[in-house]
Give the backbone structure.
Amino acid sequence: MIELNGVTDAPQLFGARQPLLEAVDLCIPRGRYALLSHRPEFHRAIVDVVAGLRPPREGFVHHLGRVSWPLGRQGFVRGKATGLRMIEFVCALYRMAATPCVELVSDLLTSPEYLARPMEHWPLYVRQEFSFALALAPDFDVYVVEGAIPFEDCRFTNLWLALFEERLVGRTLLLSTYRHQQMMDYCTKGLVYEQYGLRIDDDLGECIRRFPPRRSRSESGAPGEDSPVDAGAGDQFGV
């Protein structure tokens, strides 16, 4: 469960301060929600607040249980550390044994040999796979996905989706994506953003009709963002 209590926020977006949320009071019970609006470029900032990655300007957000990092977000996996060190860090953060996590991630990755190398030298598809694979190790109560869930018919996707479905049983999903079919496949309700507020709508089909999903600026390849398709990735995630 996620509770927003008097949340007001006006972050710096695209070079200017933007009013985002105004005095929002909302209880988001356990369920599967698609984040929808006419302003997908604001979704990243909304996810940051709802997932607890950034405190709002006023009010507070309360989580009952663990919330994942935004799966699929560009830039999550980078730096001079190796993949093995990153796994150790996450295990220490969530008080897990490192060896089973290393085995899980290694079994899922298409190219597990990259785990011993600095992440800054990884091709994009390895970074994408690693971010999704590592998110299956902690016992999260809320899974946040920003972008496309893997769907290309390949070994990694088939294995990951099977495990992800197991993890989602009885848990909460917040999905922000431009892919209509993934919303219909994984979500049952809409979390609608409009007029500086958030509300839950039980009619997901009608929500998608009113707020047709589309790519945000960053997903369209804005300057300074990683290209969403890596030449060596084989379009693993179809993004």
Summary: Strands lie at 2-9, 12-13, 16-17, 21-28, 32-36, 58-63, 142-146, 172-176, 189-194, 197-201. The chain has two domains: 1-71+141-154+167-222, 76-134. The first strand starts at residue 2 and ends at 9.
